[in-house]
Amino acid sequence: MIIAVLCWASYGVFSKKVMPKYSPMTLTFYSFLFCTLFLIPFVIYEKPLSLINKVPYYSYIAILYMSIFASVIGYLVQQISIKQIGPSKTSIFVNLVPISSIVLSTIILGEKITIITILSTALIVAGVYICQKSN
After folding, report:
1. Which family is this protein grouped under (predicted)?
2. pTM score, whole prediction
């Protein structure tokens, strides 16, 4: 987990440094290219090609949807945010993503809001407020 946090922080800082040279679209493209190349050996090791015929077609549609909307557009918006408001403020507001997920899952999926959900939301909002106030 520590390595993941360090990679995420490095990604934001590195993005800010190279942002004057490259557009957010270019940075997003190379981020995905690098990650894809890094993951290829792990994919080969897992031998997923033997399972391709067993996966229903709607799973491929879901993968395509998640790839475009949740990943590419999400990272592109993040790169644009880093360019406009900097990595520190962007990382603060990225913490609000779970709250939007809670709202959307309640509206779209009809999930119930529990006391844990309310407490988690309060903790996230408090954390974002404290970070924002210290800036």
Report:
1. Belongs to the EamA transporter family.
2. 0.65
Which of helix, strand or coil describes residue 2?
helix
Q: Which amino acid is at 78?
A: Q
Q: Which amino acid would we find at residue 13?
A: V
CA distance 135 to 133: 5
**What ranges do the domains of the chain cover?**
1-86, 95-135
Extract the tokens encoding 15. Answer: 């993005």
Residue 55's pLDDT is 82
* Spatial separation of the C-alpha atoms in residues 57 and 64, rounded to whole Å: 11
The angle formed by the CA atoms of residues 27, 63 and 48, to the nearest 5 degrees, is 100
Residue 24 neighbours by CB under 8 Å, 6+ apart: 76, 79, 80, 82, 83
pLDDT at 114: 94
